[in-house]
């Protein structure tokens, strides 16, 4: 069996079975590329997850790109990445087609109106889990472990978005730079204090 | 294709006598939509730090607030669709917006736009990822950006949650609260929550229909 075909099938499977997205896919990816096919060692896989957390882009796509490039070069990278999103392309097309065809029906209207608050709740949950990681970097969720300067950055960012109407991407970049600058200033003060 | 276009073009004419000129301007508008879609997904995908949900806020800002191509309620429906298929929310969210704006070709354009940034970033990083992973300043930058991403998601939740509260529909408000508690505290899988909300909607529809009939 050609390596391209094997890459394609492996990531097609990952793409088709990773319901819930994000970290739900990690055990599945591990099973396919570490345990079954040994394309990566467990150490390399852990590094890949860490880098995925630090970069934009979903873990499934990132691992497809990384493994594909490693195992079969640029063609392998493209092939594996496309395979990882192919099931989603097919399913989302079908559901979207049904939605736009039938959404004006009274019954579906009623269902959609109860679905929307649930979607807001899911977005809120994603926000809470990100805030947990941001405010408690040590993973101990307690008041005395809270990172106060990150809370300050968060509060300012909300203000900038809601009141000052900053663009979200400007806010994201600004928050990162602010954290670096804040650390630089704290070093400066520590230096002065130490003298 | 023209039908897809009219879906997204609120000011578009629906008159049947389409002249050549009009067809031309439709074509132009269609390619304009595709380009806008490509650059938006390309740009937004590069900023989906922190688990992908942030793309919901970014796409809402772009396609609902700035361009007005999608309305706010529809955006929530599209997220529900994205969430009910397998795969990452960042990719599926772009897919469903692509479909809404330009049909199947829109999906292809959105996928290509969404895949390029992570592909390039991982491709470059695969060469020196241990150095990247252990760089102190990059870690500091990313730590701050998490707080920013949290704020972007919080802002969109305030807005969308505010709309639900404004509806003054007790059941929907209760549902939002219960769904949040189930998902955030009891970590119930989103597929069950979507399924539960759908069942509740069906029951409510039958109930109302029965009452109207009586």
What can you tell me about this protein's structure?
The complex is a heterodimer of chains A (about 200) and B (about 210). With about 200 residues, chain A is an all-alpha fold. Chain A has two domains: about 5-100, no CATH class; about 115-195. Helices cover about 80% and strands about 0% of the residues of chain A. In chain A, helix 6 (about 150-160) runs antiparallel to helix 7 (about 170-195). The mean pLDDT of chain A is about 85. The radius of gyration of chain B is 21 Å and the shape is globular. The N and C termini of chain B lie far apart (about 45 Å). Residues about 1-15 of chain B have low confidence and may be disordered.
What integer value in Å does the Rg of chain A equal? 22 Å
Count of the domains of chain A: 2
State the helicity of chain B in percent bands: over 70%
Give me the secondary-structure category of chain A.
Answer: mainly alpha
Number of helices of chain A: 7
Distance between the termini of chain A: 68 Å
| Largest interface: chains, residues each | A-B, 97 and 104 residues
Classification by helices and strands of chain B: mainly alpha
Report the C-alpha radius of gyration of chain B, rounded.
Answer: 21 Å
Kindly estimate the percentage of residues of chain A that lie in beta strands according to DSSP. under 5%
In round numbers, the mean pLDDT of chain B is 82
What is the number of beta strands of chain A? Answer: 0
Could you give a short account of the major beta sheet of chain B? none
**Count of DSSP helices of chain B?**
9
- Structural domain tally of chain B: 2
